[in-house]
User: Fold these one by one.
Assistant:
Number 1:
Amino acid sequence: MLKIHAAEKFQGEISVPGDKSISHRAIMLGALAKGKTTITNFLLGEDCLATVDCFKKLGTQIEVGDRITVKGLGLSGFKAPQDTLYVGNSGTTIRILSGILAGQPFTTEITGDASIQKRPMKRIIDPLAQMGAIISGKKEGEQIYPPLRISGGKLRPITYKTPVASAQVKSAVLLAGLFAEGTTGVLEPEYSRDHTERMLKYFGARVRIEEKNIYVNGGPKLTAKEVDIPGDISSAAYFLVAAAIIPGAEIVIRDIGLNPTRTGILEVLRRMGAKVEVFDEEIISGEPRGTIRVQGPGSRVQKIKIGGELIPRLIDEIPIITVLATQAEGQTVISDAKELRVKESDRIAAMCSELNKMGAKITPTEDGMIINGPTPLKGSTAQSYGDHRIAMSLAIAGLIADGETIIQDTECINTSFPGFSKLLEGLAR
Ligand code: SPQ
């Protein structure tokens, strides 16, 4: 449980934990490469530790400390696990790892918590089955849910047109492509986060990118690397939004990932009128990073329309953008975001229900929300739905609400942002 009170001041210079998406991929590629990969600023959150645990069960030696070392045995070094692999709450782990398991000459069972068992898996099963893997799961109507049973082996290369812009689907197919003879391609309807492509290149794979089409060659020799992970812009987003809506606030966040497939939140903040500066930009381990400073506009933020190609570039930030929009002058419309309905929770339903309890005026639509602002918020008892992004977004809403906000069931925050409430305490007075 978290108790939040209105903040009169919100100020500070901080860094946030390592990027979750990049942390997962660093373990996966470290395990697929030959030699000792060293990872610094790895996210020690439950989701990424679940990935570590799965690879240990597949026979990879991984040491977790201030830095992580992964002793990779190459593409054919895994052994059949003794037990079912357990991914906890991590959709990224189950979907991307399935791509690797599809290429293994053994059968693996993989599952996760109650939320994972409600997340759709047909999106990865379809292309992996086309490549030759045999995958079964819990069938309900047209959809298939975990637990999954994956029998893999040598795969056929395919060129797969994904129906959704999803980095998890793209990554599952590209990593399966490492086990196919020839070139495997993924054609995306919009750009999704490209950490897998970047890291594959960084580890020495042959990757060709033609706009939204990505191709990888099978059977590469991946070489162990040093990977330093930038701060997670999705974690930074909570504090960036707080700085934009609390009068007089300012935040500086160092060493944040600035991959253009993830920076939609900065565009939204700018278009709504917040002052956003980016400096000290550099590229480390194949990923751009820098320092971000955000201040509010000095008056109210403004309404905005968010949809189309922008959506995959801020998909995980939509819950916190909803909080931002409750403070905007006019009607903010979010569309093309029906993917939000199949995340750790139905994020459209969750944000509408909990923010409306606090006094917001939000109407859910099939693929987004219409938010009428500005509305003052009042403290209430809010539910996280076991979803880390809902819990943290409501905590920021609590900073601008009158009275006390109690957020229940906040252990889920540890999946992506251990130390969130401590950092928040240090910034908000
Ligand atoms: O791992 P999980 O649970 O799927 O994580 C989420 C999140 O909010 O942390 C989604 F619920 O982020 C996904 C993101 O939405 C992480 C991700 C990745 O690392 O590849 C890609 C996105 O999902 P998708 O379905 O669009 O591929």
Number 2:
Amino acid sequence: MSKFRSADWFGTKDKMGFLYRSWMKNQGMPEDMFDGRPVIGICNTYSELTPCNAHLRDISESVKRGVLEAGGFPVEFPIMSLGETLLKPTAMLFRNLASMDAEESIRGNPIDGVVLLTGCDKTTPSTLMGAASVDLPTLVVQGGPMLNGKFRGEDIGSGTALWKFNDKLKTGEMTYDEFAEAESCQSRSPGHCMTMGTASTMAVMVESLGMSLSGMAAIPAVDARKKRIAQLSGRRIVDMVKEDLRISKILTREAFENAIKINAAVGGSTNFVIHLTAIAGRVGIDLNIDDFDNLGSKMPLLLNLMPSGKFLMEDFYYAGGLPAIIKQIQSELHMDVITVTGKSHAENIANSGTIYNSDVIYTFDEPLIPEAGTTVLKGNLALNGCVIKPSAATPALMQHTGRAVVFENIEDYHARVDDPLLDIDETCVMVLKTVGPVGYPGMPEVGNMPLPKKLLDKGITDMVRISDGRMSGTAFGTVILHVSPESAIGGNLGLVENGDMITLDVAKKLIQLEVSDEELEARRKVWQAPPAMAERGYVKMYIDTVQQADKGADLEFLVGCSGSKVTRDSH
Ligand code: FES
């Protein structure tokens, strides 16, 4: 008799056992697949509408091969796939929905362990959140980044190049024909964005947490070694089931602290803050937004990748990959925490971690930037905090006071930003409201508002921008994000008026609206919330229950873990 949970389905000699096995046999599975061996779910976020994950069927075959080799029974299943580029109004709106899909698909099926096949930004946190709420042995296989973009002799990075080319198109420095040519040159292989955008950040996050095999994060999607490590992951998950190495044994407080420090060292996306907080909430770890500042802001930047630096993920892999970063900052990390290998980080990198290209990976003693992690700012404009990524910002703007130019929502921004009569100069602070979790809804990546055309024409490349939204991990600039509480629920951001002065002081971790408390109270009395954007369906449930950015923007009732027991076990 099998000791695994799948035996509740396949291990009985009665009507129900017949039912569970017989229908599976229509796929041609022989009798011995039901002999009590571990059943491994392969949770696949493949979709042709998620181009970054479109190769995951191929990767899945390698995982299956590994599972079979180790004596397991692989069963692949699809879940909602969140493609960053196509899905409207924003993939983030559906991260929590996809997490519910993953959670219930894992719990409700005869699965003993699960491999999460992910890639594009939200496909990683959504599946990890769902799996964490079930707490089975779990391992992540990231699809890997695209090969470097190549355009007219230059390496160009996903997203990062687009933001730059878009500005050049606006100012006439680039023709439309050149712009169109770059489109094909940027994305030239399977895989996710190859800058240190959110997908790469998530790949680094899972390896930092100990949730993937060591060295996986940077392997390009089309490199044969990606399939090799996928196959090894398939073998390993079978052993994890036998060892009962559940996700809760790996996702400890120390693992989250490691992830925060490593994220700082690689210049990871600001989206990391929201996703890591949400994952921590699922396993009962109380990660506070201040933890990101306390643990990360003093960490040095070692990795020279766009958008903070020059190179791309392919270069990162050839330069030594994440083990090289971990080795450099090991004195700052909890190196003895257990990972999916059953071993510690220290053991995992015992025979790796060499830097092969010191232009790409810097050392802890001589970093690219001495203090570069995400900084948390507070003040009357963000009582519960907001974030800035100093490594992607302009040093001269890190201490700045400027006049607010307010856009009430994204439509207002688009309608007026390029109006030659807009009263704005480069010393102003651009303020965008109603792009938070509730207000938009879904907290889109619009915080890095492109600058007004008339300022681009003057050669201005950066300004202070502030919003309750997010920005793409591939983006850059002096951009203050995730303001909490958000404007749509009555946060002070919603009370900012044109002409108010705003002070940013990153060294003092301050974001302050230079308006008296009395004046703010007077404005609050006449303030009106923007109309709700949905009256039914998932979006209504999302608006009613989503938490603020500093809490990870998970739905209130999804926080926590219900375990793997199904609610009713008989028909
Ligand atoms: Fe999918 Fe960037 S759009 S990873």
Number 3:
Amino acid sequence: MANRKTSEPSRDIKDRYSVLLPTYNERENLPLIVWLLVKCFTESGYDYEIIVIDDGSPDGTLEVAEQLQKIYGEDRILLRPRAKKLGLGTAYIHGMKHASGNFIFIMDADLSHHPKFIPEFIEKQKEGNYDLVSGTRYRGNGGVYGWDLRRKLISRGANFLTQVLLRPDASDLTGSFRLYKKNVLENLVERCVSKGYVFQMEMIVRARQLHYTIGEVPISFVDRVYGESKLGGNEIVSFAKGLLTLFATT
Ligand code: GDD
Ligand code: MN
């Protein structure tokens, strides 16, 4: 059970935050991100669980996750692995099905998304009772650190093209540090067709179509130190396909 503080009357006692952490070869990063998450939730007093969705990482990420589960407890760390690499979009869907929280955080496990922003997401959500709160690298104090020019151009280009074609009116369409009301996430996921990285973009476009309210929190995205990005040429092609499909069908 949660050891939440009873001296915090402003907090809705039933709110629980499920954090979905998709992993593929994140052995070095996982202990640190989990430690930071536990620290952040413990200090802020919000109830939480962390769901690790590992896709059969050959580097032994799952074994590391099992160790972390022993350290922090089975009520805090849930393991929902899949046998092989089936893509980022479906990893979130898989994790979501096992979430017990009424709110769901989606974030990367490679420390590019720092848990220190989590209280800001939660406060922003409460401030406007937003259906979703999106971390943005492209507004306010947000930013990207450590990417080369190629990667910056890919991200900016993807955002620019999507803005022009679909006008979703959000400043970061491809980012993946977000907080959703669980029922909103479920509803959106049902309508989304994409499986890979393009999923994030489709989610926010569909959220606008359904007139869900979107809050934004500036975040800094810091490129990973350990391991490699899984974004390759294939993902760029499927992004372009996804974008055109959305353009043609909405
Ligand atoms: N389970 C699972 N299965 N996890 C995966 C898979 C997969 O097929 N592919 C990637 N991941 C995990 C990684 O282990 C990491 O925790 C997270 O998903 C993001 O993957 P990265 O490979 O680190 O992505 P990135 O840094 O290139 O891309 C980031 O920026 C993009 C553009 O803003 C991510 O935040 C993307 O979601 C984002 O679209
Ligand atoms: Mn990354």
